[in-house]
Amino acid sequence: PGAFADDFYFSVQTFGTIGYGHMAPISTLAHVVVTAESISSMLFLALLTGLVFAKFSRPIARVVFSKVAVVCEWDGARSLVFRLANERGTQIVDAQISVTVNRLETTAEGGIIRRTHDLTLVRSNNPNFVFAWTVIHPIDRHSPLHGETVESMAESDTFISVHLSGVDEIYYQTVYARYRYDGDDLRFGHELVGILSRSPEGKRIIDYTHFHETQPVS
Known about the structure:
The protein has helices at residues 4-15, 28-56, 150-155, and strands at 63-65, 69-74, 77-86, 92-106, 112-118, 125-129, 132-138, 159-168, 174-182, 186-188, 190-192, 196-198, 204-206, 214-216.
């Protein structure tokens, strides 16, 4: 009674929730082993719980991009148009989107390099990305896509990269999504099939069954 070692090892079994059964350490070496295992097991459990929680609590963007992009007239200007939709039940706050063109080019010295050009968008941010978002790039004389065709894009190995980032409104963490359009994924002279309509009661309807569909411009 009154031995510090006994009090210490008793507290180890208490804090470690080991219990006070018939099997108990009776030597100093056994007490040391139990203490080491108790401390290491609690640390391992805490680390494992944190890793599992971090893995499963990480939000996923769940953004769907239209499988093809179109080049058509939009508000009187020839434009590159594609759309994306939010599959989540919650919105993505302060969504930012960037679009770049990546292609092989010949330098003034005759060398071939791969260059990336930024595309200017009509709207590159969306404060509340809830349902669908149509992305538009006017193809004017300053656009890297000015004068491009399916054949010229295939010859220069051109592809279009799309990057989206935003904040999940539940976890307040940043989510990312990206997509790539190759030259074969562009439809010149087509337009995206409309997905917005109204019900007889006047409610807005979004028909995602036609989300990836295009039609020739009439």
